[in-house]
Specification:
Oligomer: single chain
Distance between the termini: 36 Å
Shape: globular
Strand order of the largest sheet: 1-2
Length: 308
């Protein structure tokens, strides 16, 4: 009997262990696909980054091991890689908080119950995203006028009877807002089209998160006399924090896959046929992305609340 009890206790799992097992079963198809289709490519990418790849008419592709020469060239003698990598990082740091904030704000608006909600969602997800380039070009032009120090009359002429974004940028400057904050506002306005187009998936995830919050929590908050502001920070924000982490991961990866450093790597092997250097660019950008993701997830996970 003792042996049987011990055998049963081996297979007994706690609640946390069962949840962990469900999680592993959930990601198992992705894990199998990653090992079958992508793991070998990553190994080959690292191998190419340590080699000099050539093309021979008789033997095809040739490979010569050169160590870290491609990485040294990328950070020492290449003309634009360091600048491109730095600008991509800066763009990502500017876009990330605004995309998360904008996505959460729009999701809260679209999650409200009102007549024609489905129509409003369709209007938001289709025409606005499709016309974002025109909106972004107009705001970019207004921002350029601010940076050039245009007079008030010129700003009024540029607005053409509409609301001038440049006017408000100038107003913020007159209110003695620090240059760093004003610069961030200008960069954000300049990227409004990128923020709108980069928020579609995040908005959907936030709507799903908001709809999963138990209504009893809001009822308790109303009974306790909490204001809307307090309810947001005490109920809504903690409950969507895990989805903020998910959207942050998605946004960082999405920003880097469409960044200029990836374009530089693509041009390097397509136009210059330098596969080794292009692979080094890709490896560096991948490692930087993993490092940033690890740091952000670590900081956000300390404040995350997981509701069961």
């Amino acid at each position: 009997m003792t042996a049987i009890r011990r055998k049963r206790s081996i297979f007994h799992l706690s609640y946390e262990q069962r949840n962990a097992a469900r999680g592993y079963r959930f990601i198992l198809p992705w894990l199998i696909g990653f090992l079958v289709f992508y793991a070998g490519c990553l190994v080959q990418l690292g191998e190419f980054s340590l080699s000099k790849i050539g093309l021979d008419a008789a033997t095809g592709m040739t490979k010569e091991y050169v160590g870290f020469s491609n990485y040294i060239e990328a950070f020492t003698s290449h003309a634009t890689f360091k600048q491109t990598l730095t600008s991509s990082l800066i763009d990502m740091m500017i876009d990330l908080p605004m995309i998360i904030f904008f996505s959460l704000f729009v999701a809260m608006m679209l999650n409200r119950k009102f007549k024609g909600r489905a129509v409003v969602r369709a209007i938001f997800f289709l025409p606005i995203i499709l016309s974002a380039d025109a909106v972004g070009n107009a705001i970019t032009r207004a921002t350029e006028l601010v940076n050039a120090g245009v007079s008030g009359a010129s700003l009024e002429a540029a607005s053409a009877g509409g609301v001038s974004v440049a006017y408000y940028m100038e107003l913020f400057g007159e209110l003695a807002i620090p240059d760093s904050i004003l610069g961030y506002i200008v960069d954000t306005v300049n990227r409004i089209s990128t923020i709108i187009k980069g928020s579609g998936v995040q908005i959907i995830l936030f709507i799903a998160a908001l709809q999963s919050i138990p209504g009893s929590l809001y009822e308790v908050a109303r009974i306790e006399g909490a204001t809307g502001y307090e309810t947001f920070w005490k109920v809504t924000f903690p409950m969507v924090m895990p989805h903020i982490i998910t959207n942050t991961i998605y946004t960082v990866v999405d920003r880097f896959t469409s960044s200029e450093v990836i374009g530089l790597a693509t041009r390097t092997y397509k136009e210059l046929y330098n596969y080794g250097l292009s692979s080094a660019f890709s490896v560096v950008s991948t490692l930087v992305t993993i490092l940033i993701l690890g740091l952000i997830v670590y900081l956000l996970n300390k404040r995350a609340f997981y509701y069961n």
